[in-house]
Design goal:
single chain; 276 residues; 6-stranded parallel beta sheet; 8 strands
Amino acid sequence: MTPTQHTDPRPTLVTGGTGKTGRRVAERLRLRGRSARTGSRSGTPPFDWNDSATWDAALEGTGSVYLSYYPDLAFPGAADTVGAFCRTAVAAGARRIVLLSGIGEEGARAAEDQLKASGADWTVVRSNWFNQNFSECFFLPPVLAGCLAVPAADTLAPFVDADDVADVAVTALTDPAHTGRTYELSGPRLLSFADVADELSKATGRTITYRPVTVDEYRTILKDAGQDQTYADVFAVFLDGRNAHLVDGVREVLGRAPRDFTDFARETATTGVWTP
């Protein structure tokens, strides 16, 4: 890795630049005085994972990429799309690619392999459930309604904070020492969804309960909410117990402990996002 790649003045394309981690990555890059280009359908130029004709313009003049695939690397066809994009990025001159991947996901591993075969200077950042899923994403409406219905039984999960993920990703984007490395991230403790409901109840002063449901029941819940029912099958994989262990990537990269869910819930409650 040459020094010019470490100090590359060219912009970083942040795919998913309006999402949970992408927005945070872009903010942190700009705070470091680095240019970040938002890769989204509303961006300038627009970027759409489903329309490869938009990729070249979004990549033009960039030197690196934060790759966060939507809707999820576990979805059918995701790995092939990621591979095609990475080859396009390398050909356009954006060789430095940091991929947001998933712990324990076969589809995610396939996407990682595509990245590694593309010729990119790569780093893989694996995570699992984000704390912010409860404040910025599909679990926000259930929290507001007071009941988390999820096909999780009593499975434990290593919830991780999106701010920690962004800090690790930006470090990997800006420090060539992380090239060719894979980091797995989690929070400091395992939590069940019942634990999460208790934490949210304490933070909000409201009663929020957890109701375990079957995958079929969750598919119906998603259908009634107008959401993609594929998430029911994806969640069934994520929540089968395979990820019920802690990893130490946050400390390995940042030299500090990851943020705890209690702190996330307490601070987020003060924003009013969980006030019905």
